Fold this sequence. Notes:
By secondary structure, the protein is mostly helical. The chain has a domain at 58-192: Tetracycline Repressor, domain 2 (Orthogonal Bundle), CATH 1.10.357. The protein is 66% helix and 0% strand. It has 9 helices and no strands. Helix 5 runs parallel beside helix 8 and helix 7 packs across helix 8 (154-173).
Amino acid sequence: MARPKAFDTDAALVRAMELFWEQGYAATSMEQLVVAMGISRQSLYDTFGDKHRLFLAAMDSYCAMLDDAMLRPLRAPDAGLQALHEAGLAIIDFLVRYPKRRACLMANTTLELAPHDAEIAVKVRAHMDNMAAAFRHALINARTRGEIAASSNADALAKYLVGMAHGLMVMAKSGADRDALTSILTTAVAPLMPAPDFRPAA
């Protein structure tokens, strides 16, 4: 009969995710992982497999965190222009939360691993597609309600917003503060200003 695990698997995975996010995959050693996760090397192997499998699980943990913080409200049935602007501010809140700026784990991974790791590349692409789909849903609602121009291309704007979000992450890692990031966001979302005849609900 297998013995129950003596540690919190989810908490250990989050600690691994944080370390990978801060240092990158190649720079993170197994020794650092077992210390950060508070488990033995054997427990790491038994629970998560090797370093690569652990990293894939950490990517999933990161995507779930990002989804809860930013994307889930965009998929609400009534999400529209207001939800899109709130998502942009949520991205900034997310970025300035950490004293040592980290950009985005998925963006970092795109540059470090995706070009030569097919399994990683699939996860990165799925993450980008998930972001675009959430933006697209809110954009279509906003267009239907007349909050943005009827001629707006929801697909193109969704991809643009994904690029904008990752641009904010890079700028944050380079040292941009909240005011600078908010200024960038304000300029970047100019195409999402309300249509001239739109009147917000009282």
